[in-house]
Amino acid sequence: IEPNRVGDHLGGETMTTVQGVMSFHPRSIPAPLPHSVNVTVPAKGMLELLQGYELCVRLNARCSSRIGLDIAKRWFQVHAVQADGSEVLIKKLSRNAVLSFFTDLPVCDVALEACGSSHYWARKLVRLGHRVQLISPAYVKPFVKRSKTNAHDARAICEAALRPDMRFVPIKSEEQQAVLMQHTARQLLVEQRTAVVNSLRAHLTEFGVIANKRIQNVAGLTRMIDDGADQVSHIPASGIAVLKLLVTHLRAIEESLRTIDEHIAIWQKKSAAAQVLESIPGIGIITSAAVAANVPDPAAFRSGRDFAAWMGLVPRQHSSGGKERLGHISKQGNKYLRRLLVLAATSHLRWLHKRTGAVADWCRTLLKRRLARLVTIALANKLARIGWAMMTTGELYRGEAKITTLAGAAV
Description:
- This protein is α+β, with helices and mostly antiparallel strands.
- Helix content is about 45%, strand content about 15%.
- The chain is built from 14 helices and 11 strands.
- The longest helix is centred in the middle third of the chain and has 34 residues, at about 235-270.
């Protein structure tokens, strides 16, 4: 391509004539034309034309080019490199220009941080034909150089994606994210209910009324406020009005919780993996549905230990010099599933005197030499490994009984 500026003025703009023998399409490799072509463009657009041409020549469909994309609410940062690691493009994009930018590019590898809206953008880019990979922010942070900027983050994402041993996050579908919304909303409502109940108890304590703990005793507390019992008769009318507002808010939260629980139960009955997990002692509808929704493909983990480590149920290591030092559990990964499994293990130990089988015997043996809370965490780890094995093979929890597969079970 040989640009040739001519002194022609049209509408107050200097025009530029481009003569060449190459055809150009954004998503194809340039190929020779049988004859020369003349393209007339405004002079101020000449630089953008040449830059776009050069980028598409270097980022063609056959090369191993990679783009690191740092996403945000309004402004996105692009960092493109070739197979040898040399930089091709560093560009800042507005939110509205992201899809048009990637539409004009040839198919390439795109890496993003697994953060808010990353699965949305990953699905959009996959539909455009690109190969998209999501990386945990914890694995990107070591590659950030000095101060944190959008450009440094995009470069770090690009460098992290080039590591051969990097672990990537599976892209969630819209249906999977909709199911997970039920669990996140439920957890939010549970926290709000706890906050309102604690507020009620604290306000009553200021007037000398001591309420019993546990959520099971809240019904008697609200009934006492509604009926104006003798215990609260000395509280001024303005204070009673505030307490009644909190009681109304608490009942609205409980109604929303019942609605979400019904939706989760309906989905759990339709999920084969959730039905398998529910057969494990201590695991109910909520826990089985949460595990099945968060792990649609158990084959993403090499073993049950990897699955337990993903939920932070393995000891944190600080080993050096040939000496292994194991500390507390790492508490990394999915804390929601970890909390549910710990609650399931706690329930299992609470009714251990009524349970039989290999797991119950193992818990009794461990309780002889370890504290109950430590045994609870160990049992949660074991439940995670058992759950992974059952989701992988499709077997129901058998205990001491004969193996029963999902195909032959009534679920």
